[in-house]
TrEMBL record:
Record's protein name: ABC transporter substrate-binding protein
UniProt key word Nuclease: no
Protein family (similarity comment): Belongs to the bacterial solute-binding protein 3 family.
Biological source species: Rhizobium herbae
Annotated ranges, domain Solute-binding protein family 3/N-terminal: 26-254
Length: 259
């Protein structure tokens, strides 16, 4: 009997300890903070955007405290591997190349890229021959950069640390065209005064070689438990309307289905 009581006490203590550990767990979310409307730093220095809101909603669903930290895009995967944060939610396309370094959750929105050019540029053909010698830009370290390097090898390629810098060069006439993630580019040309210079051209770029399987949350490859919890939380916020409320704050279409 005494042994049973001791065993029961130990089991209760273990359960309490596990519950306390879960309650006390704190996760750090890494994001870029330079990719509106998905992630940005506002005038008060606070990191916000669709990615951030989704990340915090997932944390709330998992009942864990989360802190959001900004990280330059070029160092965002190395920062995760170095344990500067526990997950990346920064509009990262799920690609085979990235899977060699990190593990991804299920997609939390679909992906497409687009060509952007100054209004009246007259670009109608999107072949290497047609765009030979043109100055084409993209953000460095992105699948958009991979796309223009592979598709337009005879163009003059210019890469930028942030999307904002690429946009600025386009406004100032230093780019003939750029390739960017479709939703931020659509937001830029429709809602930003600078973006009024330009327009989306051609058809959306949906080649899986470059846009992958959608946009996912990256975790370290050995963090399978966290990955599973994030997937469950994502399904939950889709089901209870939280995702839709966040989506509708930023977009007029459901970016989860692109409809």
């Amino acid at each position: 009997m005494r042994e049973k009581i001791i065993a029961l006490v130990l089991a209760c203590a273990a359960a309490f300890s596990a519950t306390s550990a879960t309650a006390a767990e704190k996760l750090k979310i890494g994001t870029e903070g330079a990719y509106p409307p998905f992630n940005f730093v506002d005038s008060a220095g606070k990191i916000g955007g669709f990615d951030v809101d989704i990340g915090l909603a997932l944390c709330a669903k998992m009942q864990v405290e989360c802190e959001v930290v900004a990280q330059d895009w070029d160092g965002i995967i190395p920062g995760l591997i170095a344990r500067k944060y526990d997950l990346i939610i920064a509009s990262m396309f799920i690609t085979e190349e990235r899977k060699k370094q990190v593990a991804f959750t299920d997609p939390y929105y679909l992906a497409a890229m687009t060509h952007v050019a100054p209004k009246g540029a007259g670009i109608t053909a999107f072949t290497n021959e047609a765009l030979k010698g043109k100055v084409i830009g993209a953000q460095s370290g992105t699948t958009q950069a991979d796309f223009i390097a592979a598709t337009y090898p005879d163009a003059e390629i210019k890469l930028y640390p942030t999307q904002d810098e690429a946009n600025l060069d386009m406004v100032n006439g230093r780019l003939d065209m750029q390739v960017g993630d479709m939703l931020p580019m659509l937001d830029w040309v429709n809602k930003n005064d600078d973006g009024k210079c330009c327009e989306l051209i051609g058809t959306p770029i949906t080649d899986p070689k470059f846009v992958g399987e959608g946009v996912g949350i990256a975790v370290r490859q050995d963090d399978s438990d966290l990955r599973e919890k994030l997937n469950k939380a994502l399904a939950d916020i889709r089901a209870d309307g939280t995702y839709k409320a966040i989506n509708d704050k930023y977009f007029t279409i459901d970016v989860y289905t692109m409809q």
